[in-house]
């Protein structure tokens, strides 16, 4: 139950308080997520100490490493120590890369962000028109094509599709760059500002490096974009069908508005709000890092980072990665919520 | 929708760029690009690094007192930062004379003091590879007494007169790398002996300096032009982390990489058939072996062990799913080691196994194996299962992750273990101590393979292993290992089965590639690229 607003409170004030409450609940969500991740990491039957000390370690060495890593303390103490460090901006050191976790994340997250953003763009700019047109021509050939596209997107293993893509576009046709983010001749040639190679190369004005970065990212991004558009086009289609059967559409048609106006101006305007949530969800799932795509394309992203460190029992790295991905999800949620309020007249 | 317009333009433009065929550069002529799986590196500190890929890196950043010649591994250890050495009358002290005029990458001179400090530091640091040095009786408390620098001489004093070959072989290991003391001392944090800094930085004198290490991504080496042994043939070496065999093969075919180190048998065949590429086979030190726990009521019967030796289809596996990548090898010293034996006389013979079991009155029994869920282990286990069934024994196969198998194995809870073992340094002692030493079979905790299989190694065999360590004459020492292996081969409940062959794919023009054979790590300084 929200507290009753004092008399004279403006609408803006109410909205702010609502947003504040939302923020608080999101923070609690994040904290819960961390706690669960921490517990899972600690109950997993993987002993990070053995990874650090190696096969030939003496019992004394094993014990010393356990103490040095703070694993001899009770779980809850470990968790609060960790949270205290994080609040001081210290994410600790990764045992599986030897680097500070913050530094690792600064390297792997932009790689994923770049890939996910491009993938989502492809998903949005192909998926939405496809979904709208499929709905408008229900049962027509475009609808059938859209159905097949979505079905393939849902059912074909990404691993196979990725390898086939590499084989055809890189191996046979030579249209795109191979695995990795850039060719080695460009590696380290451009100063890092954002960690997003497409943007960094443009800032540097290095046209060759930009082309190279683009030729490397386009295939994995198209692959992720394909899976994203399969989802977005299906959702768009069903939202649209719902609108097109509504009374106000019939009214508009009777008034003699052109079909394209009816579809794009009236119906599409009304499905924008739920679509934003769909896009945010799709973007969020790509931000987790698509592990298989990252492996096939040797893409050093956050998905393979978290997977690899989790299997090593490397909790500092896993929790650091979880904070980043969790924060993205929370931020996307917040954003779609705010947009929802701004755009949906019913929420006013 | 007006917001579509600029973005739509961007998409159209991007599409246009994407489908303009990209211009591909072959790798630059002065650069070697290697694809490998390098996500196991956890530290570049030679006092700590103990993983394959980490050792591969350090081998090229650092020098040791003695090193292998990549073009002639069979010569064994050669003078490196030490140009000569002599053993004292009582055999307990080895004194090295340091090479003059050698510089670290920092420009600091390499002195006996650096060498002494490096070895002392490794012992005090007490990380994974420390046991290689503490075998000579060095401890954190006595190491400053036992390892001393005097002018350009470095002396190492030991608790026993160990064989010269044993000590020097151990000093070729990564943990014997000589670190730039002055540089490292500037980066000490608390009592970490510069471990944190050295984890990600280089303080060596080796043929290459560290350009960059991006974990799970790439390691970049830059040639050290002032290297005492002459500048490397190539200016740069880049090792890219490529996990997938088919990705490695594609990049090799496209000319984007020069060397691929993790090709599957299928991809090896494709590379071999390509006239621009070649495959180089290199025998490595890793082995696949089978351990049969003596805690198991059935396996503790020596007759069953004898029968099991006849139930391994060496030829069948070696010619099918292990083809090319593993070679039959039935002794605990890998080929390439001092005293390695090539006695592969166990043959697949179900009838012989049946007879042995019948004579011993064993008519049935169920034994469990816990194996890592990887295709080659599963295939080996299933092949064994079929052979055992023919002889009236049931093999129960439990698959689990590598970490789970190891945990169970460490706790002596694996009746039949099928897995790999890689030597830790280039001396026969590394495997002799693992396979044929078990000083206290009743102990709560042990680390040798013999202990993990509850194999009470005959005292006489253990005495021989310990005596071989003190045998100054290398020929005699070699003979001792051959004798030990003979007895082990014929009777032990632990069977080495196969030795690793690394099939490296490369461009035709790559010359003098060396992965370090069975005794060392990869070396890049001699590698060149022709047309």
Automatic annotation (TrEMBL), chain A:
The chain crosses the membrane at residues 21-41, 115-136, 148-173, 213-232, 271-297, 317-340. GO terms for cellular component: plasma membrane. Signal peptide: none annotated. Residues 109-340 form the ABC transmembrane type-1 domain. One of its GO terms (molecular function) is dipeptide transmembrane transporter activity. It holds the Pfam family BPD_transp_1_N. Keywords: Cell membrane, Membrane, Transmembrane, Transmembrane helix, Transport. InterPro entries: BPD_transp_1_N, MetI-like, MetI-like_sf. It is found in: Cell membrane. It is a multi-pass membrane protein. PANTHER family: D,D-DIPEPTIDE TRANSPORT SYSTEM PERMEASE PROTEIN DDPB-RELATED (PTHR43163:SF8), DIPEPTIDE TRANSPORT SYSTEM PERMEASE PROTEIN DPPB-RELATED (PTHR43163). Belongs to the binding-protein-dependent transport system permease family. This is ABC transporter permease. It comes from Paracoccus suum.
UniProtKB/TrEMBL annotation, chain B:
GO terms for biological process: peptide transport. Keywords: Signal. GO terms for cellular component: ATP-binding cassette (ABC) transporter complex; outer membrane-bounded periplasmic space. Pfam families: SBP_bac_5 (PF00496). Residues 1-25 form the signal peptide. GO terms for molecular function: peptide transmembrane transporter activity. The keyword Signal applies. It is found in: Periplasm. Residues 77-439 form the Solute-binding protein family domain. Belongs to the bacterial solute-binding protein 5 family. PANTHER family: ABC TRANSPORTER, PERIPLASMIC OLIGO-PEPTIDE BINDING PROTEIN, PUTATIVE-RELATED, PERIPLASMIC BINDING COMPONENT OF ABC TRANSPORTER. This is ABC transporter substrate-binding protein. It comes from Paracoccus suum.
């Amino acid at each position: 139950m929200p507290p009753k607003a004092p008399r004279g409170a403006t609408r803006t004030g109410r909205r702010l308080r609502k947003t504040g409450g939302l923020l608080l609940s999101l923070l609690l969500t994040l904290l819960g997520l961390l706690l669960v991740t921490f517990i899972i990491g600690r109950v997993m039957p993987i002993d990070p100490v053995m990874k650090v000390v190696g096969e030939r370690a003496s019992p004394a060495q094993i014990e010393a490493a356990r103490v040095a890593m703070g694993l001899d303390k009770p779980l809850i103490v470990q968790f609060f120590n960790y949270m205290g460090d994080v609040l001081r901006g210290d994410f600790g050191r990764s045992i599986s890369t030897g680097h500070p976790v913050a530094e690792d994340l600064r390297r792997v997250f932009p790689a994923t962000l770049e890939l996910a953003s491009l993938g989502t763009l492809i998903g949005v700019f192909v998926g939405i028109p496809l979904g709208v047109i499929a709905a408008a021509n229900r049962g027509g050939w475009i609808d059938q094509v859209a159905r097949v596209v979505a079905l393939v997107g849902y059912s074909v293993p990404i691993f196979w599709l990725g390898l086939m893509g590499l084989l055809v576009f890189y191996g046979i046709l030579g249209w795109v760059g191979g695995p990795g983010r850039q060719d080695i001749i460009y590696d380290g040639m451009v100063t890092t500002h954002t960690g997003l190679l497409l943007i960094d190369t443009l800032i540097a004005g290095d046209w060759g490096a930009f082309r190279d970065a683009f030729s490397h990212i386009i295939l994995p991004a198209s692959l992720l974009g394909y899976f994203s558009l399969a989802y977005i086009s299906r959702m768009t289609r069903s939202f649209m069908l719902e609108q097109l059967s509504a009374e106000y559409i019939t009214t508009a048609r009777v008034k003699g508005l052109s079909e394209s106006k009816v579809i794009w101006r009236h119906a599409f305007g009304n499905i924008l709000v739920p679509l934003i949530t769909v896009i945010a969800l799709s973007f969020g799932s790509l931000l987790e890092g698509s592990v298989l795509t990252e492996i096939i394309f040797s893409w050093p992203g956050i998905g393979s980072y978290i997977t690899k460190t989790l299997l090593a029992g490397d909790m500092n790295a896993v929790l650091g990665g979880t904070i980043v991905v969790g924060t993205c999800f929370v931020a996307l949620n917040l954003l779609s919520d705010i947009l929802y309020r701004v755009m949906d007249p019913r929420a006013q | 929708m007006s917001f579509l317009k600029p973005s739509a333009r961007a998409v159209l433009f991007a599409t246009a760029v994407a489908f303009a065929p990209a211009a591909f550069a072959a790798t630059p002529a002065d650069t070697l690009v290697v694809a490998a799986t390098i996500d196991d590196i956890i530290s570049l500190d030679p006092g700590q690094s103990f993983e394959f890929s980490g050792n591969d890196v350090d081998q090229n950043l650092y020098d040791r007192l003695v090193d292998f010649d990549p073009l002639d591994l069979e010569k064994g250890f050669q003078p490196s930062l030490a140009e000569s050495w002599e053993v004292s009358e009582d055999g307990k002290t080895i004194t090295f004379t340091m090479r003059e005029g050698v510089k670290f990458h920092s420009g600091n001179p390499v002195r006996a003091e650096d060498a002494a400090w490096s070895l002392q530091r490794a012992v005090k640091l007490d990380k994974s590879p420390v046991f290689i040095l503490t075998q000579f009786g060095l401890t954190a408390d006595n190491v400053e007494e036992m390892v001393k620098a005097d002018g350009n001489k470095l002396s190492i004093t030991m608790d026993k007169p160990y064989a010269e070959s044993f000590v020097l072989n151990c000093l070729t290991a990564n943990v014997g790398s000589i670190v730039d003391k002055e540089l490292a001392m500037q980066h000490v944090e608390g009592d970490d002996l510069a471990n944190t800094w050295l984890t990600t930085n280089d303080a060596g004198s080796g043929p290459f300096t560290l350009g960059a290490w991006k974990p799970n991504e790439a390691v970049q080496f830059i040639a050290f032009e002032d290297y005492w042994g002459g500048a490397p043939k190539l200016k740069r070496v880049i090792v890219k982390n490529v996990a997938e065999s088919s990705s490695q093969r594609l990049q090799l075919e496209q000319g984007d990489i020069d060397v691929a180190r993790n090709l599957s048998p299928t991809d090896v065949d494709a590379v071999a058939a390509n006239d621009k590429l070649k495959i180089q086979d290199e025998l490595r030190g890793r082995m696949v072996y089978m351990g049969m726990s003596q805690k198991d009521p059935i396996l503790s019967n020596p007759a069953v062990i004898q029968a099991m030796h006849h139930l391994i289809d060496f030829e069948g596996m070696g010619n099918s799913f292990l083809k090319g990548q593993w070679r039959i090898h039935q002794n605990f010293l890998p080929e390439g080691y001092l005293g390695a034996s090539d006695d592969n006389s166990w043959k697949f013979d179900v009838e012989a196994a049946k007879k042995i079991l019948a004579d011993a009155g064993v008519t049935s029994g169920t034994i469990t194996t816990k194996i890592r869920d990887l295709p080659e282990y599963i295939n080996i286990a299933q092949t064994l299962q079929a052979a055992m069934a023919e002889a009236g024994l049931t093999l129960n196969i439990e698959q689990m992750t590598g970490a789970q198998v190891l945990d169970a194995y460490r706790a002596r809870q694996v009746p039949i273990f099928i897995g790999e073992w890689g030597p830790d340094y280039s001396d026969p002692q590394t495997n002799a101590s693992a396979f044929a030493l078990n000083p206290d079979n009743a102990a709560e905790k042990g680390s040798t393979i013999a202990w993990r299989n509850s194999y009470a190694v005959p005292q006489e065999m253990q005495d021989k292993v310990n005596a071989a360590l003190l045998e100054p004459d290398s020929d005699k020492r070699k003979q001792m290992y051959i004798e030990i292996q003979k007895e082990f081969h014929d009777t032990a409940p632990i069977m080495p089965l196969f030795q690793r062959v690394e099939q490296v794919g490369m461009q035709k023009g790559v010359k003098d590639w060396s992965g370090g054979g069975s005794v060392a790590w990869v070396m890049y300084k001699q590698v060149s690229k022709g047309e």
